[in-house]
Amino acid sequence: MKNLIFLLLMMTISMASGQNATIHVIPQPVSLQQLNGYYVLTGQTTIGYNRPEARNVAEMLASRIMIPTGFQPVVQQGSTGAIQLNLESLPEPGIGMEGYVLESSSKGIVIKANEAAGLFYGIQTLLQLLPEKIESRVAVDHTWIVPAVKITDYPRFGWRGLMLDVSRHFFTKEEVKKYIDEMVKFKYNTFHWHLTDDNGWRIEIKSLPRLTEVGAWRVPRMGYFNQREAPKPGEPATYGGFYTHEDIREIVKYASERFVTIVPEIDVPGHSMAALAAYPELSCTKDPDTRVNPGSNFAEWHGDGTFTMFVDNTLNPSDEKVYEFLDKVFTEVAELFPGEYIHAGGDECYKGFWEKDKDCQALMKKLKVTDVEKLQGYFMERVEKILSDKGKKLIGWDEILEGGISPGASVMSWRGMEQGIEAAHLGHDVVMTPTAFTYLDYTQGDPTIDPPIYATLRMEKCYGFDPLPEGVDPRYILGGQGNLWTEQLPTYRSLEYMTYPRAWALSEVFWTPAEAKNWEMFIPRVENQFGRSDIAGTAYSRAIYDAIVSTFRKDGKLMLDLRSEIPGLDIHYTLNGTMPDDHSARYVQAVEVPDGPVTLRVITYREGKPIGHLITLDRNMLEQRAR
Ligand code: ACM
């Protein structure tokens, strides 16, 4: 009886305190204290803001709340809002320009910040404190409880980026806005927009109209990128698109209202086939038949990071007309994008055509250099001068270090961490975005389940990323970024699928203090976010539920190793040609694969229910995986 009374008492307390509402915020705040009680958002809830600079954020909160709740919250300047957004008159030390303090109780909610950006991140947290139905795109009946909390929160890094490649596939203005809408929920503040490449030039340059008349369009092709049929002579180029100046101004404004800085990328001197389709005279080979590439194979990779191009996609560094061209391009880019950085690419520039070109040879003589790499250094220096004349800073992929770069240039370290470490030691600002941790185009799960591409990058690996290597002066590490290349991503839905959940993991890498990160505690928040995404209609991958299948050899035998990325899954498998279920063998430790034509079938279960994909691998595939 005593026990029963105690139990009832505890239930009453916990219900009244709102402590049954488990809190799931991504990225994990710096400090979160759950208190007794809760606030209930109703049709009477008002939103107040103390200064005009906070009005935009207050109105964005109102419009986010309005759709799922059907309420019409009054938004007013003053100090009496049930949800009150306050800009501090004396800067609150410790939370910086993007931090906030959020306090909720039965009486209401107060968010304080030094700058409007902090209020904006405060409302992202508030939306995640609300029930998951807050993501609904239609009004639903619900009790809109906000648990009582005190949160003090601010980011670890100032550069929290996602890169989107719109050259390999084109995405519309509305899709780009939607992508930005989604990323800000996780407190990303930088959108790196990869606007040009071999497969399409996507930004209108009014003084160079052929860039989009010709360069934005390619012949339509299906199938695996890099293995598609090359354009046929005379074949019409019908796939593509580009952003007009008006489109770009609209997107820049949209992003800036959401505290996102856009870093536009014009990728030169390599990756320029679309520009050369429009203006072939800008390359060494000047091939008038240069076409925008539809995803056909134009290079041979030698397996060590080096490659040979069959088709010239490189601007000619010895031609003054190239710099006149770049000046025109960057004049318009600099006018359109207010941010301090312009990304000028610099990656994967093949120098084979430069080596054979007599004007490039003459330039090398004049510069007194013998290494063709140094021509890229010369080229990037010229680009940096063009940008600095327009008040912009150059950031480029880490290859720009090889030709030598000027002190003001910043480096995006992608091939690994080493390049970023070297750049930081040389005193350059660095954004860490190494393939091994941040390449969102890589498959998330087994390549027999996910559409295969160059490599696999599981969410756990993303989560384990630390952009700040030991021994590096943290002042030079601006932050990090996830990169989404779109060779194999023809639809907006596929962009979302590849971005999430890994960009949730990276958001925590970029925002949350390293010591507060915890993979096992992250998983329930990811699963809560799956539910929110389902309601929001945002795509994501469920690869974390799948088995990870690897094999190795031991004493000449082929051994099978099965793992799961997240704890608490039961892995069941068969090797006898039958479909597995939870009565099949449960994996405990490495097992020998019997000789003969064996097929592995493996599936994961949780609490008696199948949860992952069925993965099927024949003997040949198992052999190929052997470490
Ligand atoms: C890159 O992935 N080529 C920067």
State the gist of this model.
By secondary structure, the chain is an alpha/beta fold.
Topology:
Elements: H1 2-17, E1 31-41, E2 47-49, H2 55-69, E3 75-77, E4 83-87, E5 100-105, E6 108-113, H3 116-129, E7 144-153, E8 159-165, H4 173-184, E9 190-194, E10 196-197, E11 200-201, H5 210-213, E12 217-218, E13 239-240, H6 245-257, E14 261-268, H7 273-278, E15 299-301, E16 307-309, H8 320-336, E17 341-345, H9 352-355, H10 358-367, H11 373-389, E18 393-397, E19 410-413, H12 418-425, E20 430-432, H13 435-438, H14 459-463, E21 477-484, H15 492-499, H16 502-511, H17 519-536, E22 547-554, E23 557-564, E24 570-574, E25 585-586, E26 591-592, E27 599-606, E28 609-610, E29 615-618, H18 619-624
Parallel strand pairs: 2-3, 2-4, 4-6, 8-9, 8-21, 9-14, 14-17, 17-18, 18-19, 19-20, 20-21
Antiparallel strand pairs: 1-7, 5-6, 5-7, 10-11, 12-13, 15-16, 22-23, 23-26, 24-25, 24-27, 27-28, 27-29
Overview features:
627 residues; alpha/beta; Chitobiase, domain 2; TIM Barrel; Immunoglobulin-like; 3 domains; eight-stranded parallel beta barrel; seven-stranded mixed sheet; binds acetamide
Describe this structure in words.
The structure is a single chain. The protein is α/β, with parallel strands linked by helices. The protein has 3 domains: 137 residues, 2-Layer Sandwich (Chitobiase, domain 2); 376 residues, Alpha-Beta Barrel (TIM Barrel), CATH 3.20.20.80; 79 residues, Immunoglobulin-like, CATH 2.60.40. The chain is 30% helix and 23% strand. It contains 18 helices and 29 strands. The strands form 7 sheets. The protein has an 8-stranded parallel beta barrel, surrounded by 5 helices. It has a 7-stranded mixed beta sheet with strand order 1-7-5-6-4-2-3, covered by helices on one side. Strands 24, 25, 27, 28 and 29 form a 5-stranded antiparallel beta sheet that branches. Helix 12 links the parallel strand 19 and strand 20. About 2% of the residues have low confidence. The structure holds acetamide. The site of acetamide has 4 residues, from loops.
